Amino acid sequence: MDIIYYHPSFNPETWLNGMKRRLPMANVRLWQPGDDAPADYALARQPPVEMLQGRTDLKALFALGAGVDDILEQLKQHPSMLTPQIPLFRLEDTGMAVQMQEYALYHVLSWFRRFPEYQQQKQQHYWHHLKNRRRSEFAIGIMGAGVLGKSVAACLRPFGFPLRCWSRSAKQIDGVTSYHGGEQLAEFLSASQVLINLLPNTPQTAGIINRTLMRQLPRGAFILNLARGAHLVETDLLAALDDGEIAGAALDVFASEPLSSDHPFWAHPAVAITPHNAAVTLPDEAMDYIAAAILKLEAGEAPAGKVDRNLGY
Predict the structure, then answer these.
(1) What is the pLDDT of residues 39-50, one digit of tens each?
(2) CATH numbers and ranges of domains, the chain
(3) In this predicted model, what pLDDT tens digit does every residue of 43-90 receive, in sequence order?
(4) What are the phi and psi torsion angles at 113 (to 5°)?
(5) Other CB atoms within 10 A of residue 41 CB
(6) Which residues does 90 contact at the CB level (< 8 Å), separation at least 6?
(7) Cα 154 to Cα 146: distance, rounded to the nearest angstrom
């Protein structure tokens, strides 16, 4: 069994040695330009076109991330890079779910307890008790009901917030009121005091968090974007913040990364920023999944995480 690996920033030795330990029967190598030797499986993030071009015998490509939008975008420009019969897999969890839980829980509880407002008071040397929010009126709306969306809902459930989710198709999640499709989006938004975005990045979801959507949220709602920068119209968010329609936002992803030094988000007091690290790929967990998935494929079984290229996830 031959496996090729490519990532623009990860330490290759960690992955080469780790995969060899998990699959001792495999020949695992770092792909380099000019390497057109046979390969059964490919592990890659932002792979060069020539890495995959012409590999019709490839059994599967594993994308080294939760999203596959980078590979799908490449396929638009180079459709022959990965023939349709070669399955594409993404990392559904592999340690990312817990990280997303931590990130979401931190911001939801911070907004609920009004800690950002107290921090502003501290800077002004101002001692003043703010009115406590009512838990029953602080509904959390999660856009995206996949593995990560379900995980975030599960971590918030013990705190007693009303939980709502919205997705393309109908989903059932314990303790969560579910909405789906365009016809139910407005109802979902109408009571979501916090909007958490965990949607996949597809042509249909690009720019979905715009001024029209924000105006359907309760006035003074909060926005937490953990998915992709392409989902959010940044100028619309700034306008909604300045008009008081949105009370605050926490953003881990942006339309252009790294965020330019003159971007208005840096100076805005109601915007929290992190450098696209809400959930990073954990090598050990990711390699455990990939090795198990390869063994299933070799046994003629179907592992989790296969991407529907038409849907984009």
Answers:
(1) 999 999 999 999
(2) 2-94+281-299 (3.40.50.720), 96-273 (3.40.50.720)
(3) 999 999 999 999 999 999 999 987 788 899 899 899 989 999 999 999
(4) -85, 0
(5) 24
(6) 62, 63, 65, 66, 67, 68, 305, 307, 313
(7) 12
Cα separation values, 183 from 48, 168, 179, Å: 40, 10, 9
Which among 228, 235, 221 has a CA at the least distance from the CA of 200? 228
Cα 54 from Cα 80, distance rounded (Å): 8
Average pLDDT for 302-307? 93
Retrieve residue 166's tokens.
Answer: 């919205």
CA distance 292 to 295: 5
Which are the contacts of 126, defined by CB distance < 8 A and separation ≥ 6?
A: none
**Paired residues of 164 in beta bridges:** 141, 177
The answer to whether the CB of 33 falls within 8 A of the CB of 21 is: no
Distance of alpha carbon 81 from alpha carbon 138, whole angstroms: 47
Q: Which residues are catalytic?
A: 228, 276
Distance CA 100, CA 119 (A): 24
Say what the pTM is. 0.88
> Helix, strand or coil for residue 98?
helix
What does DSSP assign to residue 60? E
